[in-house]
Design goal:
Number of strands: 5
Number of helices: 3
CATH topology: Double Stranded RNA Binding Domain
Helix content: 25-40%
Strand content: 15-25%
Radius of gyration: 28 Å
Largest sheet: 3 strands, antiparallel
Structural class: alpha+beta
CATH class: Alpha Beta
Order of helices and strands: EEEEHEHH
Length: about 140
């Protein structure tokens, strides 16, 4: 059981982990040890996620989401399988935690009369400065 927060948790069988060879330097073991982890999580068909969380998760996942709704994460930061496994799961949990937070509804506001007047006064002042700099003074000055 993978705990997300107080209300959400994932079953272990919902997450598929495969071990692959990691790129980069590694000495003698570079072509023998599969220390990188590829995590696959079917977000679109997960029974553990409510619909709003699922929709937000698909947006957050971005390019890590396949056309079939699977999130694919590759972890190869560390030199051991266990550390990379923990890193991949932590990254998935963090993604789901971010998706579980309901965004605040924006309440549209209107500018006050005083702020409109200040804005127009500033614009008038600025246009006066530009008019004086241009050297062309109109006859109404």
């Amino acid at each position: 059981m993978i705990e997300i927060n107080d209300e959400l948790s994932l079953e272990d069988d919902e997450v598929a982990l495969t071990f692959i060879r990691s790129g980069g330097p590694g000495g003698q073991n570079v072509n023998k040890v599969s220390s990188a982890v590829q995590l696959r999580f079917d977000a679109r068909n997960s029974p553990s996620l409510p619909e709003p969380v699922r929709n937000r998760l698909e947006v957050i996942a971005g390019s890590k989401l396949t056309k079939d709704g699977e999130i694919v994460l590759t972890a190869n930061r560390f030199r051991t399988q266990e550390a990379n496994r923990r890193d991949a799961i932590d990254r998935l949990v963090e993604m789901i935690r971010d998706a579980a937070i309901r965004p605040k509804r924006r309440v549209p506001t209107r500018p006050t009369r005083a702020s409109k007047e200040r804005r127009l006064k500033g614009k008038t002042k600025r246009s006066g400065v530009k008019r004086l700099r241009s050297g062309k003074i109109s006859s109404d000055d």
